[in-house]
């Protein structure tokens, strides 16, 4: 009969043999990782690409933009944004217009007035 110390050693070896080898930090990632990453719906567009899309191309139901300056957030449904500005309007321009209509920070200088949009994904 093996001793408790020998049994623990045998159990550790069995666990190590069954475990999958870990990927090296600079080694290639498995193809399953890339498949799951690319199937993620958020992989459709980067933030910059999303800002340049026309409202008719956006699949999200709610669009959200916040101001980096006054910390105000504005949400609008995509259908409402299309009704207000038309389907060919670019989301970046619509967001800037929504923020500027109710901006809280006024300095009196045209170059500095208005909100600074920070686009978020709901």
Describe this structure in words.
- It is a single chain.
- The longest helix is centred in the N-terminal third of the chain and has 15 residues, at 4-18.
- This protein has two domains: 4-41, no CATH class; 45-120, no CATH class.
- The protein has five helices and three strands; from the N terminus they run H-H-H-E-E-H-H-E.
- It is an alpha+beta fold.
- The protein has a three-stranded antiparallel β-sheet with strand order 2-1-3.
Q: Measured on Cα atoms, how large is the radius of gyration? A: 26 Å
Overall residue-averaged pLDDT value: 76
Query: Biggest sheet, open or closed, and with what strands and sense?
Result: 3 strands, antiparallel
Strand content: 5-15%
Q: Which consecutive residue ranges, at least 5 long each, have pLDDT under 50?
A: none
**Number of beta-strand segments:** 3
Proportion in helices: 40-55%
> How many angstroms does the end-to-end distance come to?
61 Å
- DSSP helical segment count: 5
Task: Give the H and E element order.
Answer: HHHEEHHE
Look at the helices and sheets and give the structural class.
Answer: alpha+beta
Shape: elongated
> What is the domain tally?
2
- Output the strand order for the largest sheet: 2-1-3
């Amino acid at each position: 009969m093996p001793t408790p110390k020998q049994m623990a050693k045998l159990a550790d070896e069995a666990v190590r043999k069954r475990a999958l080898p870990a990927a090296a930090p600079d080694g290639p990632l498995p193809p399953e990782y890339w498949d799951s990453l690319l199937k993620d719906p958020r992989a459709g567009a980067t933030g910059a690409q999303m800002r340049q899309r026309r409202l008719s191309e956006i699949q999200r139901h709610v669009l959200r933009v916040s101001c980096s300056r006054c910390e105000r957030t504005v949400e609008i449904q995509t259908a409402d944004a299309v009704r207000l500005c038309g389907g060919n309007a670019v989301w970046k321009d619509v967001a800037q217009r929504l923020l500027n209509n109710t901006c809280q920070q006024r300095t009196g200088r045209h170059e500095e007035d208005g909100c600074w949009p920070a686009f978020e994904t709901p």
